[in-house]
Amino acid sequence: MDIKVYNQAGKSEGTMNVSDALLAVPANADLIYQVATSQMSNSRQVLAHAKTRAEVRGGGKKPWRQKGTGRARHGSIRSPIWIGGGVAHGPSRDVNFKKKINISTARKALASVLSARATDQHLMVVDALDLSSGKTKDAVKLFTTLTKSFEGYKRGSRVLLAISGTKDDAMLRRSVNNLSYIDAYRAADLNALIVLSYPYVIVTKDGLATLEKRVTIKK
Question: Buried b vs exposed e over 157-172: b needs ≥16 C-beta within 10 Å?
Fold first, then answer.
């Protein structure tokens, strides 16, 4: 399929032929949901942990003898029914939330989400982005101009900037660091979950070529 290519001034500079496997994939909500939830699970950090009675310090000595005191029988002060004791059935850092995602499935989900953005006219391909000054004010001017081409764009809406990620992009990354509504990612690092988090996508020609290679490569 052919997609329009814009320059930094937001003007069309012709079209670019892109593989249908990247931007012409039919929407598959079930597939996207499966992949996105799996990617969220895989990025989850297990922090909550409650110590069991075996992990709480102390409690090696029986608090009092078994019989003759008139009190209930206890074997350890670290029992879950004691204050300061272990926790029964509490959260554990040993739990595993990882889910396996086939490479081909993840690629298809990424292509499906990008295709949906392109269909909604929420995806823009830019010939190149030159922000050698590295200044935030220059980035604001640039992206204010570019986002005017988006269908129904509202000021402050989140924008995903997909770039090739070479050393030449260092100043571009620096210029958008202070913009809360724009995040720059290497095209090689994108996945379905990341793209779903942004209603609008701006991608450079080099970045689009990287995405096309990722989706069409047979591995």
Answer: eebbbbbbbeeebebb
Q: What is the CA radius of gyration of the chain?
A: 27
CA-nearest of 114, 122, 125 to 28 is 114
3-state secondary structure of 144: helix
Give the fold, CATH level 3, of 2-44+97-216. Ribosomal Protein L4; Chain: A; (3.40.1370)
Q: Which residue type, as a one-letter code, is found at position 42?
A: N
Q: Buried (b) or exposed (e) across 181-198, using 16+ Cβ within 10 A?
A: ebbbbebeebbbbbbbeb
Q: Fill in the DSSP letter of residue 3.
A: E
Return the pLDDT at 85.
Answer: 96
Q: Is 70 exceeded by the pLDDT of residue 136?
A: yes
d(C-alpha 14, C-alpha 136), whole Å: 29
Q: Are 196 and 217 in contact (CB under 8 A)?
A: no
pLDDT in the model for residue 1 = 84
Say what percent of the chain tops pLDDT 90.
Answer: 81
Nearest residue to 63 via CA among 51, 81, 50, 90: 81
The CATH 3.40.1370.10 domain(s) of the chain lie at 2-44+97-216
Rounded to whole angstroms, the Cα distance separating 170 from 108 reads 30
Confidence of residue 169 (pLDDT cuts 50, 70, 90): confident
How far apart, in whole angstroms, are the C-alpha atoms of residue 169 and residue 134?
Answer: 10
